[in-house]
Amino acid sequence: MTGAGPLRDSFGRVHTDLRISVTDRCNLRCTYCMPLEVTFKPREELLSFEEIARVARVAVRLGIRTIRLTGGEPLVRRDVPELVKQLVAIHGIDEVALTTNGLLLADQAVALRQAGLARLNVSLDSLHEDVFETLARRRGLDQVLAGLAAAKRAGFEPGQGAAAIRINAVSMRGLTESEIVPLAEFCRREQFQLRFIEFMPLDAEGGWSKTQVLSGREVRELLERGVGPLVPLAAGDPGQPAIDYEWADGGGRVGFIDPVTQPFCDRCDRLRLTADGQFRNCLFSTTEWDVRAVVRGGGGDAGIAALLRACVAAKKAAHGIDTPAFERPARAMYQIGG
Ligand code: SAM
Ligand code: SF4
User: Fold this and answer.
1) CATH architecture for segment(s) 17-336
2) Which of 62, 136, 170, 188 sits 20 to 30 Å CA-CA off 13?
3) Atom from ligand 1 closest to the CA of residue 21
4) Rounded-to-integer distance, Cα 198 and Cα 196, Å
5) How do 193-198 and 165-171 pair as beta strands?
6) How far is CA 5 from the centre of its chain?
7) 99, 246, 229, 232: which is closest to 167 by C-alpha?
8) Which residues, 6+ apart, have CB-to-CB distance to 29 below 8 Å?
């Protein structure tokens, strides 16, 4: 019914990870992601939880093993723990995780953990409210810190193991240099995994330029000068985009996701489903595959599977940010799901 074999593209990459966006709405307005004034998708254009779970079930039959919920801000959509429960129950799924800005985590951490959520990525670029506000264009640092504390109490653990909490920080030249060492010290103290992500051309206002990219290498140099030596770790999961280091003094790990200066397209195992039901084979894809039309048009599971296979088959070798032919996608990050 769903064709044979894993989701292998024409370059041999097998896809096992699906990012599912549940909303394009958000309670922040990060400069690198979203415009200040936004018109969100009408509710009826978003997939229902039942529709998402149905697409996910087909994807898992085709070899998807890990799902990460994202947005927009996923926790602004009502009853996300209910969706987590439905996804965790799919036979063959290894892990359901969530990426959040943490603002609503204090209220929802217990329900998410009880629903079976395995991991939490919390985005936090600064520990200073003024810089937080410059980047996010809203206040909220205390709420994020309260959310992290609640997540720990709910059983999401610091450290490297299962149920780990990870902090993701975007690096932007001229804006975040001063935040890097305090974030690292905070994460060492709290034993959170910390990952720095290079600024990608997915902002809504079209302001991205390569000069604003503070590279992972530069961040690492700032960390070594401000905190201490880092030792590279052997590469782990090949689908994992981060290059991980360990503090030489045993203070935990720091990872670097460098999509601009060190693209990892050759080992990408990721597919995406937008909140309005479009499959994408790359963050920078300029084509989408309309699974909502299949689901609502009575296409059946075989139709969903065929569409996902077509999406995978069309995947390009690389995003090509550095090439003259690079074309920015029409959607910004909040409309895709990071
Ligand atoms: N709202 C949630 C959050 O912020 O964690 C989930 C969605 S957000 C789009 C997912 C991740 O994408 C966040 O860690 C965010 O920092 C990152 N992100 C957004 N725009 C980006 C950009 N232009 N370049 C690099 N990372 C970006
Ligand atoms: Fe919202 Fe996350 Fe985008 Fe910031 S990065 S505007 S929190 S979706």
Assistant:
1) Alpha-Beta Barrel (3.20)
2) 170
3) 7
4) 7
5) parallel
6) 26
7) 99
8) 35, 36, 38, 136, 137, 138
196 C-beta closer than 6 A to ligand 2: no
The confidence score (pLDDT) of residue 1 equals: 44
Cα separation, 57 vs 271, in Å, equals: 14
Cβ(311)–Cβ(104) under 8 Å?
Answer: no
Dig out the tokens for 338 from the structure: 């990071």
Bridge partners of residue 156, in order along the sequence:
none
- Element counts in the chain: helices (H) and strands (E): 10, 12
What's the 70 CA to ligand 2 centre distance in angstroms? 10
Please tell me the pTM assigned to this model. 0.96
pLDDT in the model for residue 159:
59
**With the CA atoms of 145, 39, 276 and 240 taken in that order, what torsion angle do they form, in degrees rounded to the nearest 10?**
-40
Mark out the alpha helices in the chain (DSSP H runs): 49-61, 80-88, 105-115, 129-136, 141-153, 177-190, 216-226, 291-296, 300-313, 333-336
Q: Which token pair is 255?
A: 């990872």
Contact 35, 205 (CB under 8 A): yes
Check if 28 has its Cβ closer than 6 Å to any atom of ligand 2: yes
Orientation of helix 129-136 relative to helix 141-153, angle to 10°: 100
Closest CA to 175 of 126, 208, 217: 126
Task: Give the ligand whose atoms come closest to the C-alpha of residue 167.
Answer: 1
What is the predicted pLDDT for the residue at 160?
A: 53
Task: Give CA–CA dist 192/12, Å, rounded.
Answer: 34
The encoded tokens of residue 77 equal 């959509």
Strand partners for 171: 198
| pLDDT, tens digit (0-9, with 9 covering 90-100), for 102-127 | 999 999 999 999 999 999 999 999 99
The parts of the chain modelled with pLDDT lower than 50 are: 1-2
pLDDT value at position 158? 64
Instruction: Annotate 206-222 with DSSP letters as a single string.
Output: S---GGGB--HHHHHHH
Extents of the domains making up the chain: 17-336
Angle at 247 between CA 225 and CA 262, to 5 degrees: 75
